[in-house]
């Protein structure tokens, strides 16, 4: 009987201690103070700095996304014609080559505006030696309105001869804003009928840096 | 289960085989800005990025490149890191901004054919050599706010000469009606190759809404003062109607478009438009939209023109917003829709009649000839 009373008392004490403990814990958690919770405060700082980045992406060539090469393959000037004209705007005149619709799409994906120059490792005269007035040209235009806000005079959407040095500027201010950051570069070949059999690999270089 | 794993493997394999972004290139930082100091020796690091597997050759070019040498050129974590050392002389004769190019030219793959495009990306060291004597360059920015709110503006003055300058800035605010306000900022000295920024506000309580120019004229002791101009706008809670559909078809449900423009520097919610024909019950209401600050956009409704006989009618366009209404009365032209079925039927009928006439004529001629014989 005594042991029963002792057990009952211990149980009652345990219940009371539990209730007090629960109430203290609840109060401490609800007020988030330092009492019996181990909660402590420290002030933290987050510092974020963004470096400038000049970056472009050639997103498409000849209408093929992810490509950076245009290949007309083999062809001939039509019999009886003086010359054939190939332009990457789906134009093939007086030649047996297949038309290519879409030049190079160039996107500014950096966080600064850039200047853009164009050159190639060959000119029309070296691709089609000893032939009558061949032409190898490029034409840079805005694929998104105002992508280039400042062209060098006479370069906007005009076919110009390729040169082997990048000294010729094309776009002085190629925007990086999402809605206007894409240029298109079309390529033109004017192939005379007296051009000799040839298969050249031509490298075009886009030279750019921050404004 | 096995089939599911196979499909998953196939998808992963396909993703691995997909070409990466094939023409990616870049450099970070894009540029460094430094001022000339005699005998300055400093290293600059540029991190170039190209597509996986692409190699590039580093070089130094541009004016003053003779004072730059490549001290390190290596690939690390998929990037080409080029470190150059700038070793400046005691004096450079040509003042102004010089751009030294630290470039990396892509080596195109031998497997490519036809016409391929590669890049030559350049990081720039912008070196400013002070002008002889006194020289100042200005930068000016001003915020666009709503009318009555303070406009914050920043006038930065850069002393680009080899002598210190004493500046006395004058600020002039103008709008299309002329000069609105003019005031001076405190004069101060700006040391050679140093800069100072005046960060101030303009109280616009007395200004109306509209476009304003802020012009800074800074006397610094040079031959002529340096000037800079910037446009800022003060918004008003107004939505304008800048364009609308002016021609619709008769007796048809037409899409009616209104171009609306916000002149407020905060978002405007619950904007909708209505069009109603004067003297008729015909009207249309557009869906409700929100306009961002200064946003110009189009809203569309559907206008039924059934029962309207006139070719030109008066229409009232309204834009509702924030318990306000902008109203515009316009002329609306109504045209009849061409019924091409009837047009082609008439043309076909005429052709058939002509053919019959020709046939009859031929028969008459034949009969006439036979009688003669």
Record the SSE blueprint.
The complex is a heterodimer of chains A (211) and B (373).
Chain A: H1 2-31, E1 54-61, E2 64-65, E3 69-70, E4 83-87, E5 91-93, E6 104-108, E7 114-120, H2 124-127, E8 135-142, E9 148-151, E10 160-161, E11 169-174, E12 182-192, E13 202-210
Antiparallel strand pairs in A: 1-2, 1-6, 4-5, 4-12, 6-12, 7-11, 7-13, 8-10, 8-12, 9-11
Chain B: H1 2-17, E1 24-28, E2 31-35, E3 41-50, E4 55-62, E5 68-76, E6 79-87, E7 96-107, E8 115-129, E9 136-142, E10 145-146, E11 151-159, E12 165-175, E13 178-184, E14 188-190, E15 195-202, E16 210-219, E17 226-235, E18 239-244, E19 247-249, E20 253-262, E21 268-277, E22 283-285, E23 289-291, E24 296-304, E25 312-321, E26 324-335, H2 340-372
Parallel strand pairs in B: 2-8, 10-17, 19-26
Antiparallel strand pairs in B: 1-3, 3-6, 4-7, 5-6, 7-8, 9-11, 11-15, 12-13, 12-14, 12-16, 16-17, 18-20, 20-24, 21-22, 21-23, 21-25, 25-26
Helix content of chain A: 10-25%
What fraction strand of chain B? over 45%
Mean pLDDT of chain B: 89
The largest sheet of chain B is: 6 strands, mixed
Instruction: Please give the number of β-strands of chain B.
Output: 26
Shape of chain B: flat
* Major sheet characteristics of chain A: 8 strands, antiparallel
Query: Helix and strand string of chain A, N-terminal first?
Result: HEEEEEEEHEEEEEE
The largest interface is:
A-B, 38 and 32 residues
Unreliable spans of chain B are: 1-21
Radius of gyration of chain A, rounded? 36 Å
Shape of chain A: elongated
What class do helices, strands and sheet pairing of chain B give? mainly beta
For the CA atoms, what is the radius of gyration of chain B? 36 Å
Report the sheet-strand fraction of chain A.
25-35%
Keywords:
heterodimer, A: 211 residues, alpha+beta, 8-stranded antiparallel β-sheet, 4-stranded antiparallel β-sheet, 13 strands, 16% helix, 34% strand, elongated, B: 373 residues, mainly beta, 6-stranded mixed β-sheet, 2 helices, 13% helix, 55% strand, flat
């Amino acid at each position: 009987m005594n042991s029963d009373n002792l057990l009952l008392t211990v149980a009652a004490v345990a219940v009371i201690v539990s209730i007090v403990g629960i109430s203290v814990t609840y109060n401490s958690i609800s007020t988030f103070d330092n009492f019996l919770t181990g909660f402590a405060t420290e002030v933290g700082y987050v510092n974020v700095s963004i470096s400038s980045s000049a970056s472009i992406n050639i997103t498409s060539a000849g209408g093929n996304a992810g490509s950076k090469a245009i290949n007309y393959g083999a062809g001939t000037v039509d019999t009886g014609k003086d010359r054939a004209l190939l332009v990457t705007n789906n134009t093939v005149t007086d030649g047996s080559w297949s038309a290519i619709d879409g030049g190079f799409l160039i996107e500014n994906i950096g966080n600064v505006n850039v200047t853009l120059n164009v050159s190639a490792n060959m000119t029309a005269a070296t691709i089609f030696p000893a032939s009558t007035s061949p032409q190898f040209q490029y034409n840079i235009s805005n694929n998104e309105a105002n992508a280039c806000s400042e062209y060098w005079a006479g370069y906007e959407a005009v076919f110009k001869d390729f040169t082997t040095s990048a000294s010729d500027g094309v776009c002085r201010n190629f925007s990086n804003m999402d809605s206007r950051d894409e240029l298109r570069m079309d390529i033109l070949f004017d192939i005379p009928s007296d051009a000799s059999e040839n298969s050249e690999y031509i490298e075009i270089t886009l030279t750019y840096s921050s404004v | 289960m096995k089939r599911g794993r196979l499909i998953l493997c196939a998808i992963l394999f396909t993703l691995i085989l997909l070409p990466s972004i094939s023409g990616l290139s870049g450099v970070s930082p894009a540029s460094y800005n430094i001022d000339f100091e005699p005998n300055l020796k400093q290293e600059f690091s540029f991190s170039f990025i190209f597509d996986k597997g692409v190699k590039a050759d580093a070089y130094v070019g541009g004016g003053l490149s003779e004072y730059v040498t490549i001290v390190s050129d290596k690939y690390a974590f998929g990037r080409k890191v080029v470190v150059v050392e700038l070793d400046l002389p005691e004096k450079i004769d040509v003042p102004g901004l010089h751009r030294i190019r630290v470039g990396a030219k892509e080596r195109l793959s031998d497997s490519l054919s036809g016409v391929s495009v590669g890049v030559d990306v350049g990081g720039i060291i912008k070196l400013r050599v002070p002008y002889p004597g006194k020289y100042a360059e200005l930068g000016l920015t001003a915020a666009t706010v709503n009318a009555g709110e303070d406009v914050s503006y920043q006038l930065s003055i850069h002393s680009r000469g080899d002598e210190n300058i004493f500046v006395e800035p004058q600020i002039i605010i103008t709008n299309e009606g002329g000069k609105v306000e003019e005031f001076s900022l405190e004069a101060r000295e700006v040391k050679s190759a140093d800069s100072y920024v005046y960060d101030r506000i303009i109280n616009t309580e007395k200004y109306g809404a509209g476009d304003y120019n802020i012009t800074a004229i800074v006397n610094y002791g040079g031959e002529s003062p340096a000037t800079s101009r910037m446009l800022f706008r003060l918004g008003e809670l107004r939505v304008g109607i800048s364009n609308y559909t002016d021609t619709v078809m008769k007796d048809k449900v037409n899409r009616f478009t209104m171009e609306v423009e916000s002149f407020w520097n905060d978002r405007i919610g619950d904007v909708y438009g209505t069009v109603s024909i004067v003297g008729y019950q015909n009207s249309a209401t557009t869906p409700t939209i929100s306009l961002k600050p200064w946003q110009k956009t189009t809203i569309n409704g559907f206008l039924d023109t059934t029962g309207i006989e006139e070719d030109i009618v008066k229409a009232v366009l309204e834009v509702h917003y924030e318990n306000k209404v902008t109203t515009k009365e316009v002329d609306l032209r109504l045209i009849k829709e061409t019924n091409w079925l009837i047009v082609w039927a008439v043309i076909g009928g005429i052709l058939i009649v002509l053919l019959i006439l020709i046939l009859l004529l031929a028969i008459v001629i034949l009969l006439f000839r036979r009688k003669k014989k």
